[in-house]
Amino acid sequence: MPSEALKGIRVLDLSRILAAPYCTQLLGDLGAEVIKVERPGSGDDSRSYGPPFVNDAKGNPTADAGFYLSCNRNKRGITVDHSKPEGAALLRELAAKSDVFIENFRTGVLAKYGLDYESLKAINPGLIYCSVTGFGQDGPFSARPGYDGVFQAMCGMMSVSGLPDGVPGGGPMKVGVSMVDILTGLYASSAILAALRHRDNTGEGQFIDMALLDCGLASLSHYVQNYLISGNVPERRGNGGFGGIPSQTFKCSDREIFIVASTNKQFGALMRVLGEPELASDPRFDAVQKRITNRDTLLAKLDALFLKRSAAEWLEDLEEADVPASPVNDVSMVFDNPQIQYREMLAHTHHQVAGELPILRNPIRMSATPIGEATAPPTLGQDNDAVLREVLGYNAEKIAHLRACAVL
User: Fold this and answer.
1) For a 10 Å CB count at each end of the chain, is N or C smaller?
2) Does residue 41 come out as left (phi exceeding 0), alpha (psi in the -120 to 50 range) or beta?
């Protein structure tokens, strides 16, 4: 059974790629009815962002990439050509019966088809309209295109990621995951939920203007706040943190582990595990601020100590001492983690073409409105007939006409 947290909320989703589809997937996970609208014939651009492509039940690759599958579960899929008058009219009909409308076209594009906020507000005053763009609806860059990597570079995220200058491989580094896209999706979902709450109280819809650049900058959080109060530009520290010391990776005799022992209690426990308890009372290292000031000296000592044993040996002793630590896993190792297995973060659903499809489970756990089993991301146009029949009351003849006119 789907979650009932957002039961009765209908989302008309004209978004593509990652940021906005990630947002609507979250709303679908929480029980909203999400109707994903794609271009006839080609669909969401992310369907082609492979390999890998999911295989069908016979083991043959399909046209749907793993990228697309990652952010489109719990949605119904239809195809509509909004550039045709009949297609735009159809979407206006759906918007009139929806609670949320979300799109990520360039600023001003949908106004040409009567699908902008003012046009849809006129027929549905309670509509929550969320527009996700690279730079927002106004400002000198508002007409520019952009993608996640561009925003990581522009907002400063790359400048604080990667190894320091002067070491091999040093320099700004893009975060591997499309982090600005994902964070924007999360910010957008929060904004939509707040707008729905406001509408519940007032009956008023509203326009939500989400910009990837804004979200990327906001996500730098304490890095930016530290700069604002000190004037010091944050330096790159590779796998080292900016809080207490140590908080970073260390090479063992066989592989790397990540340690956080920032409090005095944790640091003392770490030093006992490493066989150097006197370092915890060393006047250079006996307080958080002192360890930060003398970080290079301390880390050189720790680097040498960790090389003496294997990761498994250190991790066993660190767990016993209650020091937070982990092996540095790649994705193939993650699902062997007994905690991940217990929390059932790997789920399966039935895909119309692929059969059983492994997917990530939504991490939200709620006692009264739990998130149920997911439906698979829709194949292109999978729900055309059902949505038009059930939501708009179209008969078979009208649907056939739209199909013949290449609207669907």
Assistant:
1) N
2) left
